[in-house]
Amino acid sequence: MSSTKSLRAGIVGFRGYSGAELVQILHRHRHVEAVPLEHRTGADALPLSADTIAREKLDVVLLATPPEASMELAPTFLAGGAKVVDLSGAFRFKSVADYTRWYKEPHHAESLLAEAAYGLPEFYRNTIRPARFVSNPGCYPTAANLALRPLVQAGAIDLQAGVICDAKSGVSGAGRKASLKTSFCEVTENFSAYSLLDHRHVPEVLQNSGLLESQFSFTAQLIPIDRGILETIYFRRSTPDFTPDHLYQLYKDAYAGERFIRIHAPGKVPDLHAVRRSNYCDIGFSQQPDGRTVVVAAIDNLVKGAAGQAIQNMNLILGLEEAEGL
What we know:
This protein is α/β, with parallel strands linked by helices.
């Protein structure tokens, strides 16, 4: 272990796919050491207790846990003086009503909703950096918002015609817990849609892109690969002024200097191989003369869609270089 690792990050949920990805990224991080924390019975990690947090002098805790576990654990770590990055959906909304509607469960830590900084660095870096508590975005909304927000803000989309987002994800997005739906025999040589029009990630897209629910139709689909998200987004341009060259320049201006956003030239679109095991979001598009436009955004759901983005956020709140370890 390098002697330069002067900071310590506790990882809860290190046995899951996102948690294991966090451990792997921190293994190559020059300044932060991973400290596995066990919230279940286990002999190969430190027990999860107030004494452990104080004794281990944790600077930050990364919660790769289900929402209900994050609601229980986040207040404890914050009260103990550690900063927290939560990878679950527990604190992504600002109201209990929104959480209850979309997650179909009660919320038990309402006091932290207003404090949590939404952790999409390309949009909210200035509010993330001074925060002690960051809510990591969902994987689907990360790709959708990065693709849509610059166009919505510029008025490039005919909102009356609406936006359709067809999103396909690898099986690791469902987590590591065993289930019939994600078992090998159910997934292999199959392709299925789920949560049509009421996926719990929809409100994250709405609150960060500027779209209304009536303007956005989202379908999530499970494809038989282990990792990756590819979203195909359909809309009509608002006026003929928004030519392919104009849209390309909008993207280039919006993400100038953004290390992890790569914009393809008009007519070129990304695929999953280009982003696999990376923290990149690749965006490309094609447009017909009549204004029909298709944008394609690709990310690795376990990296830019989860652990990689969490490390970006961790680096920001610890005052480190944002891309360290990535």
